[in-house]
């Protein structure tokens, strides 16, 4: 199918608009569409097109290596997808500025090249790559994720292409309503799928979450209440924290908060996320106005696949320097990023006593019926009568700190509620999840809205003024709503950090040294200087010998040598008959648009050319050349010296005759056109 006129230019403009590369898109569109108004064309042989395709492949590989040497994240993959039309544009330009009006299929596929090498007489198949290239542009534009504008542009381009290829037997009055119906259905389906995704995710969390062990997320956290054995935690460094000199680091970094308790697990009800406002000029994300006095800290963390929850100090109102395409926050303080670099380094501003969380609701006071009597009996025994909310928080916190012990040994059996009952009534020992859950439920019984929070504790100083946060520092605590603000209430005995450190390997120092080295290399690479830049430079310099090797491969088969007797340059063939003088004849005819058909041998082609070529050709002479060529190419004995000279002479004579005929036809056409212009 032929690409509609101006369609490819419009597609390139649309691609440039969607990917924020309008100038590049406009230049590429101009180059392609300008070919319509230019009278001249180049003659590209099959070898020329092979070289062009290989150059495009080299450009793509260079772009691939360069982008991933800068940042190996999911965002880089999407950025690379948006730039795919750029390295392959030269091949498209060859089609629009070549005489054939298409690309030899052997240039596109390595297997086709190998077949052509083994069977040079195989008819060439010229294909139009305009529409496939347009499709690639649309797919690249979709990676920009501009939903509304993309769909409208995609719709216009689709209708344009379908209109040009519609069956003529159908009436326009029928075709237009059908295409409008399909467009409306597509838009509705797009919005419907987006909405359905939200419903499915929530239903999955509500119905099936209890039976799965997943990572912590912003909607549900799975506790280890009721499990058996010893809780195993990793000693891997997951974050590095650095505050200004003289300022203390935040004691807790909150990842998420939850308000609904059921059977040992906590969920966040009505926890829809909304995009955080952004100031691109200052590279700033903000959640609200800051307090009169605030503190700052720098957080460095590796993001798996460039996405996930951030762990932030309470009262965070600004994040600066986070290179993320999207950043969303819910009313419980959970912050989710997507398309972030693999190593995220950002500055956080936060203030004490100011937490931009949703005010308490009925769910923040609810205690499940199955444990209500258990919680009531425990809280009623505490001296809370007549105390202020702040004093109640202190009494409940001290109750757990003074009467309970921390342990990683899990005594399971009987379900999660039974495990909570054993913790409160019998063993009086457990890990942080027991303390946080029990504290939140005690606070609710005491009339104080409470939530369950998860995150990390900052307790280990590191080198260069940093504080190291390991996976084993994952922590849980309660949030209490007192005097109009949410406060952290950590009732876990402080010995928990030492308890979890006991399982540390004797080689942990070595592991930390490698971790620190990798972090520094990643940081330098992200900042664009030092070790990181050198690594990138090494990768880019490594492309030079690779490119040289590929160029050598491209030109290796066109070796030119000197004939010892005549001193003339001669082509060094790689197969029998590869230097036959018939091949230049075939290339000239192909350049004029005369190609062999599928299954057509050379003699059949010659007979058809005698009818198709204006003014005719010397068919008999051409068939004699073909006869000698076949012998030279396939006869094991080849040609003797006399027949070899005869093939060369006949081919030279035929080409000269054909060229003179072309010149005569051009003069006649010119004279005829000139005469037509003189007629009144």
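^ structure tokens above, recovered residues below v
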């Amino acid at each position: 199918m032929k690409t509609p006129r101006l369609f490819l230019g419009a597609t390139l403009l649309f691609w440039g608009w969607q990917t924020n590369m309008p100038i590049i898109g406009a230049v590429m569109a101009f180059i392609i569409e300008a070919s319509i108004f230019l009278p001249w064309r180049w003659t590209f042989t099959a070898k020329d097109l092979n070289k062009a395709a290989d150059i495009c492949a080299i450009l793509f590989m260079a772009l691939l290596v360069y982008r991933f040497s800068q940042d190996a994240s999911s965002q880089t993959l999407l950025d690379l997808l948006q730039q795919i039309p750029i390295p392959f544009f030269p091949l498209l330009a060859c089609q629009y500025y070549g005489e054939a009006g298409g690309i030899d299929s052997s240039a596109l596929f390595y297997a086709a090249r190998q077949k052509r090498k083994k069977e040079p007489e195989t008819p060439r198949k010229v294909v139009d790559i305009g529409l496939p290239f347009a499709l690639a542009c649309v797919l690249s534009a979709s990676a920009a994720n501009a939903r509304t504008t993309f769909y409208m542009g995609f719709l216009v381009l689709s209708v344009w292409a379908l209109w040009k290829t519609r069956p003529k037997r159908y009436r326009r009055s029928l075709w237009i309503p059908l295409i409008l119906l399909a467009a409306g259905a597509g838009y509705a389906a797009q919005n419907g799928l987006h909405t359905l995704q939200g419903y499915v995710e929530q239903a999955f969390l509500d119905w099936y979450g209890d039976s799965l062990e997943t990572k912590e997320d912003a909607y549900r956290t799975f506790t280890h209440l009721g499990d058996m054995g010893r809780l195993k935690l990793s000693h891997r460094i997951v974050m590095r924290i650095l505050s200004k000199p003289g300022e203390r680091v935040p004691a807790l970094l909150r990842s998420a908060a939850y308000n609904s308790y059921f059977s040992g697990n906590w969920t966040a009800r009505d926890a829809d996320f909304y995009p955080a406002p952004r100031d691109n000029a200052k590279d700033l994300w903000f959640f609200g106005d800051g307090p009169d006095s605030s503190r700052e800290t720098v957080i460095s963390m590796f993001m798996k696949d460039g996405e996930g929850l951030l762990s932030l100090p309470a009262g965070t109102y600004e994040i600066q320097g986070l290179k993320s395409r999207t950043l969303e926050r819910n009313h419980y303080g959970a912050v989710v990023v997507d398309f972030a670099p693999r190593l995220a380094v950002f500055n956080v501003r936060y203030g004490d006593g100011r937490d931009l969380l949703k005010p308490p609701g009925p769910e923040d006071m609810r205690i499940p019926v199955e444990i209500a009597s258990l919680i009531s009996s425990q809280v009623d025994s505490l001296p809370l009568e007549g105390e202020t909310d702040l004093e109640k928080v202190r009494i409940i916190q001290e109750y757990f700190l003074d009467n309970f012990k921390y342990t990683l040994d899990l005594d399971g059996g009987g379900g999660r509620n039974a495990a909570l009952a054993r913790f409160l009534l019998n063993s009086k020992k457990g890990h942080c999840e027991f303390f946080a859950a029990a504290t939140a439920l005690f606070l609710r019984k005491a009339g104080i809205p409470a939530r369950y929070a998860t995150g990390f504790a900052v307790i280990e100083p590191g080198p260069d003024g940093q504080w190291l946060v390991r996976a084993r520092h994952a922590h849980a605590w309660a949030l209490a709503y007192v005097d109009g603000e949410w406060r952290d209430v950590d009732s876990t005995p402080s010995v928990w950090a030492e308890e979890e450190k006991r399982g540390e390997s004797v080689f942990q120092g070595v592991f930390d040294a490698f971790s620190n080295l990798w972090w520094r290399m990643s940081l330098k690479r992200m900042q664009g200087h030092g070790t990181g830049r050198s690594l990138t430079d090494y990768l880019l310099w490594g492309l030079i010998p690779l490119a040289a090797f590929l160029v050598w491969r491209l030109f290796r088969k066109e070796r030119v040598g000197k004939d010892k007797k005549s001193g003339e340059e001669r082509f060094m063939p790689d197969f029998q008959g590869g230097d036959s003088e018939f091949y230049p004849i075939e290339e000239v005819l192909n350049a004029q648009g005369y190609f062999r058909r599928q299954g057509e041998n050379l003699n059949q082609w010659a007979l058809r050319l005698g009818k198709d070529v204006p003014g005719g050709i010397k068919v008999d002479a051409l068939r004699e050349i073909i006869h000698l060529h076949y012998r030279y190419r396939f006869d094991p004995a080849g040609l003797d010296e006399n027949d070899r000279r005869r093939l060369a002479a006949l081919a030279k004579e035929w080409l000269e005759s054909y060229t003179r005929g072309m010149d005569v036809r051009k003069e006649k056409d010119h004279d005829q056109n000139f005469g037509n212009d003189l007629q009144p």
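The longest strand covers residues 474-482.
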